[in-house]
Amino acid sequence: xxxxxxxxxQLASASALPHSFFLRDPRQVAPGLLGKLLLxxxxxxxxxxxxxxxxxYLGTGDDAAHAAAGLTPRNRVLFGPPGHAYVYFIxxxxxxxxxxxxxxxxxGCVLIRALEPVAGLRQMARARGLxxxxxxxxxxxxxxxxxxxxxxGRLCQALGITRxxxxxxxxxxxxxxxxxxxxxxxPPRVVVTPRIGIRSSAxxxxxxxxxxxxxxxxxxxx
DNA sequence: ATATCGATTATCT
DNA sequence: GATAATCGATATG
Length: 222
Known about the structure:
Layout: H1 3-12, E1 15-16, H2 19-22, H3 26-33, E2 37-42, E3 45-57, E4 85-90, E5 94-100, E6 109-119, H4 121-128, H5 142-148, H6 152-159, H7 163-166, E7 178-182, E8 190-193, E9 207-210
Antiparallel strand pairs: 1-7, 2-3, 2-7, 3-6, 3-9, 4-5, 5-6, 8-9
Helix pairs in contact: 4-6
The structure holds a DNA duplex.
C-alpha cells in the first residue's frame, strides 16, 4: 500500500472528539485541543493538520468575544450546542474557525489559530496560492511549509473553510467532512500568553501554544 | 530585525 | 461611518 494512503487510513481512523469534549469551559478546551487533529475531506482526498495554537473566548462576560453583546444573527452558532463550527469573515479578506463550547445557551468558544500540516500538503499549498519550485519535494521547503497554516486565516484558506460552506457544521463526526480527532499523539507542553489582535481585554492570558513548535503563528514561536 | 500600510466587506453604532 | 479574533507586501534601521 502506498505510504500516502496508509497515512490517510491511519488519520481517518483517529477517533473524533465527542460533544462531551467541548461541553466545558473554553479555558479547558483550548489547551486540550493542542496536539489534536483537524481533518478535512476534500474531493475524495484527506487534508489534515495538528493543532498547535488556540485561544479561548468566554462569551457574554468577555469584551473581546463576538458573543459579548449577546445573541445576534451572526453569532447564533456560539449559543448553540457544543462542538460546532463558528466561521466568520474578517478584514474583508479572511475566514476564522472557532469551535463552540459549553452547553446550549452559553456562548464560549475556541479560536483555532495554527496547524502543523500533516496530510494533503500539496493540495493545501495549492489552496493557499503558493507555488512549488520545480519538482522539489514539498517536505524540503520549511519556509513554505510554515506558511501553509500558521494563522487563523491561513488555515481556513489551506483547508477551504468558509462561512458559507462550514458555519454551523458539526465537528464531532467524520461524516461532516470537517472534524476534530484524537490520534493518541503525545500532547505538547503548553505555554499561555495574551490573545493576538484584540483591543479589549488584551491582557487576559487566554492564548495557548505548543511549546517550541515552529508552526505557531507570528514571527517567533513561543 | 521591526514598523507600517492597503486590501475589502460584514456587522454594529 | 467606524471597526475588525488577518495577511502579505513594502519600507526603513
